[in-house]
Amino acid sequence: MHKDVLVIDDNPDIRFLICNILKEQNFDVRSAANFDQAVLEINKKLPDLAVIDIKLDKADKDGIDLLKLIISKNKLTPVIMISGHATVQIAVEAIRLGAYEFIEKPFSTEKILNYVNRALENASLKKEKDFIENKLFHSFELIGKSSSIIKIKKIIEKLSTSESRILISGPTGSGKELVARKIHKNSGRSKQPFVILNAALLKEKTYEKELFGEEFEDGNVSFGALERANKGTLLIDEVSEIPFETQANVLRVLIDQKFKRLNGSKYINVNIRLISSTSKNLNELVEIEKFREDLFHRLNVVPIELTSLSSRTEDIPLLIKYFKEKLSEINGVHEPKIDIKNDNLYTYSWPGNVRELRNLVERVTILSANESKENINKLLDDILSSTKSLENDQSLIEKSFSSPLKEAREHFEKEYLTTQLKKNHGNISKTADFIGMERSALHRKLKSLGIKGIN
């Protein structure tokens, strides 16, 4: 299947030249001569790649605005910006906003083809990575033989023919999103969108925009989670974090099945299945008037409660086996020989639950390549023992669980980036490419987090 490339330039000679170069290489090529034509073509069908001139026919709109439009629709779509008179600042801004490359006019046939092919190859690799990671972490497999997991599997099976709203509660890392995805996959909406709104990650003033979308004076529209999930399933993760005032608007949508975008005048009808999840006790929040009682009852039609991993330790061997297979596949290494009879696996409290176990298996998988079984289990013991020593320090536990979101996020970013750097042997370029981040931005992030070179 040929790749679809959209060429946008108001200079007919340049536009004709680029289109011919690409057509000779068997690309399917579309073109646009001005800003409005370009918007029509983008909205008609998002291209596999776009080549955009910075300066176009409109004084108040240029190629940067088209770049933003494409990235907002799909951040993985590669965009090559071209210009004959752009400043360094504009070029830097284009790259910062997500452009794959910036090329100055005039350019050779070889140069434009080289960038186009590299951009498409890079996009293909990122899509493949996303697919593999999605397959790994959202594979819809609920692993376990404990009574609590068997009970949840039965509930999910019964819900396959139901449209009921569901409230999934459980500690952090216990698999709430996985259960929600499983419910969606088994439902009649499985071929429709599954959209996640993580209420814990939103700023206080952006909840309504993220839920309902927004209309702008220039006619552009930002679609909210409700609209994107239409005909499918919307998961509101950590629903307890939605501000009390916004909860009333959510309740109104559940009652009326319609809403208005911010600054909008028309009602938009929606047909969604709502699943909510929480790591907090909503009953307690209702009692202290931090959560609306009427909304709680609307959400809590079918409650599902996930238990901690430490309360179902019989599932640990099955989970290790599952994660070993998946993580060795994605990292391209042999499965580590983890001794599932190791006492530390069952006496450790697992405050991060299944997610923490998965992270542990990933760490062992990466660090123990080609190591003996004895060395692997020594590594496992060292990791669990060091974690236990922190766990036994009560002041550290309290500090960890009472950290503001910003500190918790920084801690996660530091752990994640350190692991990715180790996987790529300290190579900044490979790490930046793998995580989908610009090299310069990664350098700044590492510096801000105090991460030094990895040996």
Describe this protein with a few key phrases.
3 domains, Rossmann fold, single chain, Helicase, Ruva Protein, domain 3, globular, five-stranded parallel β-sheet
Description:
The protein is an alpha/beta fold and about 450 residues long. It folds into 3 domains: about 5-135, 3-Layer(aba) Sandwich (Rossmann fold), CATH 3.40.50.2300; about 160-305, Rossmann fold, CATH 3.40.50.300; about 310-450, Orthogonal Bundle (Helicase, Ruva Protein, domain 3). It is built from 20 helices and 14 strands. It has helices spanning about 10-25, 35-45, 65-75, 90-95, 110-135, 145-160, 175-185, 205-210, 225-230, 245-255, 280-285, 295-300, 315-330, 345, 355-365, 375-390, 395-400, 405-425, 430-435, 440-450; strands at about 5-10, 30, 50-55, 80-85, 100-105, 165-170, 195-200, 215, 220, 235, 260, 265-270, 275-280, 300-305. The strands form 4 sheets. Strands 2-1-3-4-5 form a 5-stranded parallel beta sheet, sandwiched between helices. The protein is globular and about 70 Å long. The two termini are about 45 Å apart.
Briefly say what this structure is.
By secondary structure, the chain is an alpha/beta fold. Helices cover 51% and strands 13% of the residues. It is built from 20 helices and 14 strands.
